[in-house]
Design a protein that fits this description.
Strands 1, 2, 5, 6, 7, 8 and 19 form a seven-stranded mixed sheet that branches. A five-stranded parallel sheet has the order 10-17-11-12-13. The two termini are 14 Å apart. Strand 1 (5-10), helix 1 and strand 2 form a beta-alpha-beta unit. It is elongated, with a radius of gyration of 21 Å. It is 23% helix and 29% strand. Helix 1 (14-25) packs parallel to helix 6 and helix 4 (154-164) packs parallel to helix 5 (183-191). The protein has helices at residues 14-25, 60-73, 135-138, 154-164, 183-191, 285-304, and strands spanning 5-10, 30-34, 47-48, 58-59, 77-80, 83-87, 93-97, 101-109, 113-115, 131-132, 146-150, 169-173, 195-198, 201-208, 212-219, 225-229, 232-235, 239-241, 271-273. The chain is of the alpha/beta class and 307 residues long.
């Protein structure tokens, strides 16, 4: 069997499209397989202000379209399909989709991940309009305002502390009466003068007319509910990589992330990982782009070695 492509890239987010840009410019025949729409997380982000080269910021969907157009310009093929499993035993790598098979001499996995959601009314409707899952991405939009952070782990406190340097007040809403975060982060949070805590509370609804203006909280001990004014709701109740189709083929960590080295190489030669799917990712746009470029260069070097 001969390879249909030099490189198969699974996922058309920032990492996958950046990888495609570099592989196609290196004259490697490349296909990018995407389940939904190109752009990944940036395609559903309203304002991107922390990506170099755009001093006035740029709308996420526009940036996603530009990345897609640039990859296509140099010859990347983009197919819409759901990859169900990989076959990596032979010299050729196969991504098995619901529609067809994609065979390449090298494979780059860039399927990203998703933040766990609360699943409450208003969360999806106000996403990007006050509901956020990334303080380092969106914190500056709330300068001088009051926000809530939902969660009690390391991510919630770390991002809450980041927000405390920007906003007026941070209220941490946690379902239990003690935090799960590390003791160091807890100490810092308790010592922050503008961080408050709502113990044994849960967010039942997020409300606003075009932008968040309050959350409906429930006191889990008394069962009473009440409205709590806020300009933003930052949600940190977990993150899961889109790696269900990888089990049994590659080495994953306990959270389902692909284990890779600094050159994006995985446990299988010729298979590379980039972006949020990768272990120790910072889940930032700039990191995803850099990962994609590194994976593309590593794939080129791997293919240059010959059979």
């Amino acid at each position: 069997m001969e390879a249909e492509y030099d490189v198969v890239i699974v996922g058309a987010g920032a990492a996958g499209l950046s990888a495609a840009l570099y592989t196609t410019r290196a004259q490697l025949k490349t296909v990018v397989v995407e389940q939904l729409a190109p752009g990944g997380q940036i395609a559903v982000t309203s304002d991107v202000e922390n990506y170099p080269g755009f001093p006035e910021g740029i709308q996420g969907p526009e940036l996603a379209q530009r990345m897609e157009a640039q990859a296509r310009r140099f010859g990347a093929e983009i197919e819409f399909d759901t990859i169900e499993r990989l076959e990596l035993d032979g010299a050729l790598k196969e991504a098995i989709g619901a529609e067809r098979r994609y065979t390449g001499r090298a494979l780059i996995i860039a399927t990203g991940g998703e933040h766990n959601k609360l699943g409450v009314p208003g969360e999806d409707e106000l996403s990007g309009q006050g509901v956020s899952y990334c303080a380092t991405c969106d914190g500056n939009f709330f300068k001088g305002q009051d926000v809530v952070v939902v969660g009690g782990g390391d991510a919630a406190l770390d991002e809450g502390l980041y927000l405390s340097r920007i906003v007026n007040r941070v209220t941490v809403v946690h379902r239990r009466d003690e935090l799960r975060a590390s003791k160091v982060l807890q100490e810092r949070a308790f010592n922050a003068p503008n961080m408050d805590f709502k113990w044994s509370h849960a967010v039942r609804e997020i409300r606003g007319n075009g932008a968040v203006d309050l959350v409906l909280l429930e006191d889990l001990k008394s069962g009473s509910g009440y409205e709590y004014p806020t300009s933003g709701a930052f949600i940190y109740v977990g993150f899961h990589p889109n790696s269900a189709f990888l089990h049994g083929g590659l080495t994953l960590d306990g959270g389902g992330h692909v284990v890779s080295n600094l050159h994006m190489g995985t446990s299988v030669p010729g298979v590379f990982a980039s972006g949020d799917i990768r272990q120790f990712s910072f889940r930032q746009l700039g990191n995803a782009v850099g990962d994609g470029i590194a994976a593309a260069i590593s794939a080129y070097e791997y293919l240059s070695q010959g059979p």
